[in-house]
Structure formats: structure tokens, C-alpha cells
Design brief:
The complex is a heterodimer. By secondary structure, chain A is mainly β. Helix content of chain A is 0%, strand content 59%. Chain A has no helices and eleven strands. In chain A, the strands form two sheets. In chain A, strands 2, 4, 5, 9, 10 and 11 form a six-stranded mixed beta sheet that branches. Chain A has a five-stranded antiparallel beta sheet with strand order 1-3-8-7-6, with no helix packed on it. In chain B, strands 2, 4, 5, 6, 9, 10 and 11 form a seven-stranded mixed beta sheet that branches. Classes of the chains: A mainly beta, B mainly beta. At the A-B interface, β5, β9 and β10 of A face β5 and β10 of B.
Chain lengths: 113, 114
């Protein structure tokens, strides 16, 4: 059973702080990792993807991947109230002719003004 | 580009009724997916398709059926609706199965079965 686990939330940070979101996955065969942001009542929206060990930065967002520890994280610098949402971690497996994403349950982030 | 569109946005069904959730994408994507999301949970894969005429089961297929007659459309059929099918349903698409490929999601259909 391929599983993606996220920290139980919710997570609350003050405006301007760094928010750190963590995720672990069960299968070492996972090849790609994604962070989706989901506002209440809306669909998931991709904000970061990472495929290689190390850090990947995009604006205020940094994704970190450690395949040896089976660990993925998302850092949000200078958090804004508009970052308040649920963040879903997902891992992708290639299986023959197909690829499948497995999602974690998500963690809800609240940024306090 | 409209991306991925879904209809209807909301629907209330009685137990035992049937309905079809529509999904259309205009990005010429080969891969299409149906997920359901229950409150406080991640997305669970119901069915997916790798191209017109080819579909396969995901993690939670029971009570659902799909077809894919064109590249653009991937409808999800609920037969004999049950309260356990109350959920938000998302359709998604991607160009390929590659490790770098991104799934794009539709706006969702909120279904209540009473």
C-alpha cells in the first residue's frame, strides 16, 4: 500500500513568518513529488513539484526532497494571509504504462495578520 | 483554453438514483482521472484513462463506471447512488505519464446523496 503522510494540523503562523509543511512517503519507488494548494471549496492547484534530492525554490516557496529519508517538505517564506489554505502533498509512481498520484490528507495552514 | 471543466457544480440525489458527472478538457491531454475527496481527506483515485477507449480502475472504483470515447471527454457514471458516495468529485488531466508531468484539476462537483 503506497501511502503519503502529512503532519496533523492545523498549522498557524503569524504574517511574515516561515511556514514549514512536512510529508513522508512509504514507497522508495516514488519518483516525483508535488505540493498542491487548495482553498476552501476550490480545486487543488499545483504550486511546486520536485524530482531530485535537494532544494527547489520558486519565489517565496521552497520544496525540499530527501529520498533517503523518504521526506518532502514545503517552506513558505514571508507568509501572507492569502497563503491560508490546505496544502496537499502527493507522490507519483510510474506503473507500467501508467502513472498514479497518491495524496496525503493535507494540512490546513492559517496565517494570522 | 478553458482547461478542465466539470458539470454540474452541485447535485443532490436520492438513494438509488443514477447520474453522470461530466468532464471535458481542451488541452489535448491523453491522461484523465477521476478523484473523490471526502471532508478532511486527501484525494482518492476512482478511475483513470490513458487514452480514448482505454480505462482502468483506481483505488476506490466500486459503485462507479467510466467511458472514454473521445480524447476530450471522460464522464463518470454513478449507478444506484448510496450515501457513502456523498463527496466532492474532481476530474483531472495530464499530457503524459512522465515523472515531470502535472495533473490539472477541474473545479469539482459537490454531490450529496440523501
Amino acid at each position: 500500500q503506497k501511502e503519503v503522510e502529512q503532519n496533523s494540523g492545523p498549522l498557524s503562523v503569524p504574517e511574515g513568518a516561515i511556514a514549514s509543511l512536512n510529508c513522508t512517503y512509504s514507497d522508495r519507488g516514488s519518483q516525483s513529488f508535488f505540493w498542491y494548494r487548495q482553498y476552501s471549496g476550490k480545486s487543488p492547484e499545483l504550486i511546486m513539484s520536485i524530482y531530485s534530492n535537494g532544494d527547489k525554490e520558486d519565489g517565496r516557496f521552497t520544496a525540499q526532497l530527501n529520498k533517503a529519508s523518504q521526506y518532502v517538505s514545503l517552506l513558505i517564506r514571508d507568509s501572507q494571509p492569502s497563503d491560508s489554505a490546505t496544502y496537499l502533498c502527493a507522490a507519483l509512481w510510474l506503473t507500467g504504462a501508467n502513472s498514479k498520484l497518491t495524496f496525503g490528507k493535507g494540512i490546513t495552514l492559517s496565517v494570522r495578520p | 483554453n478553458a482547461g478542465v471543466t466539470q458539470t454540474p457544480k452541485f447535485r443532490i440525489l436520492k438513494i438509488g438514483q443514477s447520474m453522470t458527472l461530466q468532464c471535458t478538457q481542451d488541452m489535448n491531454h491523453n491522461y484523465m482521472y477521476w478523484y473523490r475527496q471526502d471532508p478532511g481527506m486527501g484525494l482518492k483515485l476512482i478511475y483513470y484513462s490513458v487514452g480514448a477507449g482505454i480505462t482502468d480502475k483506481g483505488e476506490v472504483p466500486n459503485g462507479y463506471n467510466v467511458s472514454r470515447s473521445t480524447t476530450e471527454d471522460f464522464p463518470l457514471r454513478l449507478e444506484l447512488a448510496a450515501p457513502s458516495q456523498t463527496s466532492v468529485y474532481f476530474c483531472a488531466s495530464s499530457y503524459s505519464k512522465g515523472v515531470t508531468d502535472t495533473q490539472y484539476f477541474g473545479p469539482g462537483t459537490r454531490l450529496t446523496v440523501l
